[in-house]
Design goal:
single chain, 397 residues, alpha/beta, Trna Endonuclease, Chain: A, domain 1, 6-stranded mixed beta sheet, 6 strands, 11% strand
């Protein structure tokens, strides 16, 4: 076996070290911001009987911190730090203080990252400046922080930008969900912000009962059945397409392929792209499947059909054809039954129900798509509309 070249080995060492240093510095910044917020809150509570004490306190702090540590300690920033502590009172939790001690600038250890304090610490001749025992000590500290992690506690994979975004989520259950998903799916701060803006939690929660919503808040988005995979609506504002009756299905498909990575993120975890415009020939008749995916968690093919108008029973019949074909011709011994999804601008849930029947409702789904980020009011109106349609349907049997 050939030995890995020297340069490659050295490069891997440096890249690993750089990643660890960046993560430890990010964690240090988060902890320092939380501690500053705690000090502000506790000081404000001591002087709460004095009118306007909090505002005057923050103004004085802004002036002094800006003088000693440079720009970056504006009044809005200090208010953010105060809000951070209020939103995450158990960030360090029980038993976490020892784990983060070596990462924090303290009077005892004299250690302070330059990126945090923006100036070096002076060292007296009789006292050696303490730094953590290189990579091992930092790794152990970070590892101990993440053990038995729960939302609301410090996680080294979440930066200050992540936490600052999470603070804007008012509902505790939704914030916990986004926190879990950001860690599990390694979301960047930008992706986290986009998922919050697209109301991912609300879209997943609207089809679940109270116990299901609680699982979202404590476990994140878990996939146990096909119904757990698909959202309604699907938000594809990143395609940059206008809401127009002139939009063609080919334009929609091309835009999806141009933004395939973003589209896969919106579909959710587990999707792998297989094919586009796959031709089926049945006794001389040709049919073309828009998009084919494979779901690695459910271990099945997923047929996706794109429509630019309101869904019809004919559209569902076409998707049934594709799903049945894949089940008979493409599915192997290790695959579960094929799933189908139609994305449309509008649908009649009663038409979907009676076209598919009880059995195929478990494998074929229809979701609306939105070419813009929905507001919470729009989502609530959609939920009310669906509930009205469901309750107005005659009961079978």
């Amino acid at each position: 076996m050939s030995r890995v070249p020297l340069y490659t080995r050295i490069r891997e060492i440096l890249e690993s070290a750089r990643s660890r240093v960046a993560r430890s510095v990010n964690t240090t910044q988060v902890v320092a911001n939380w501690l500053i917020g705690r000090e502000i809150v506790e000081e404000e509570q001591k002087g709460k009987r004095r009118a306007g004490y909090g505002d005057k306190l923050l103004q004085r702090l802004t002036q002094k911190l800006s003088r000693d540590f440079g720009p970056g300690y504006s009044l809005p920033h200090l208010k953010n730090l105060r809000g951070f502590y209020v939103a995450y009172p158990q960030l360090l939790g029980a038993g976490k203080s020892h784990a983060v001690r070596s990462l924090l600038p303290t009077a005892e250890n004299g250690y302070a990252p330059r990126s945090l304090l923006q100036r070096p610490i002076t060292e007296s001749p009789s006292r050696k400046l303490h730094t953590p025992d290189s990579e091992t000590e930092i790794s152990n500290a970070l590892r101990s922080i993440s053990e038995e992690w729960e939302p609301g506690q410090l996680n080294p994979n979440l930066s200050w930008t992540h936490y600052r975004t999470l603070m804007r989520v008012d509902r505790p259950a939704a914030r916990a969900f986004y926190e879990i998903e950001a860690v599990k799916e390694s979301w960047s701060a930008r992706e986290l912000e986009r998922q919050i803006a697209s109301l991912l939690f609300e879209r997943l929660a609207k089809s679940r009962d109270k116990a299901g919503v609680m699982r979202l808040a404590t476990k994140g988005h878990e996939i146990a059945s096909p119904a757990d995979v698909f959202k309604d609506p699907v938000v594809i504002e990143f395609l940059g397409l206008p809401e127009s009756h002139r939009l063609a299905e080919s334009d929609l498909e091309q835009a999806v392929l141009d933004q395939l990575q973003s589209f896969l993120l919106e579909l959710g975890k587990g999707f792998a792209f297989v094919a586009r415009q796959q031709r089926l020939t049945l006794e001389g008749d040709h049919f073309y499947i828009d998009l084919v995916f494979y779901h690695v968690v459910l271990k099945c093919y997923v047929i996706l059909d794109l429509k630019v108008g309101k869904l019809t029973h004919g559209d569902l019949g076409q998707l049934q054809l594709y799903v049945n074909y894949y089940d008979r011709e493409k599915r192997t011994a290790g695959d579960n039954p094929t799933l189908g999804l139609t994305l449309c601008t509008d649908k009649n849930d009663a038409v979907v129900k009676y076209t598919l029947g009880a059995d195929q409702e478990k494998t074929i789904f229809a979701s609306r798509y939105k070419l813009h980020l929905p507001s919470e009011a729009e989502l609530k109106a959609e939920v009310r509309r669906e509930l009205k349609q469901i309750t107005s349907m005659p009961k079978s049997g």
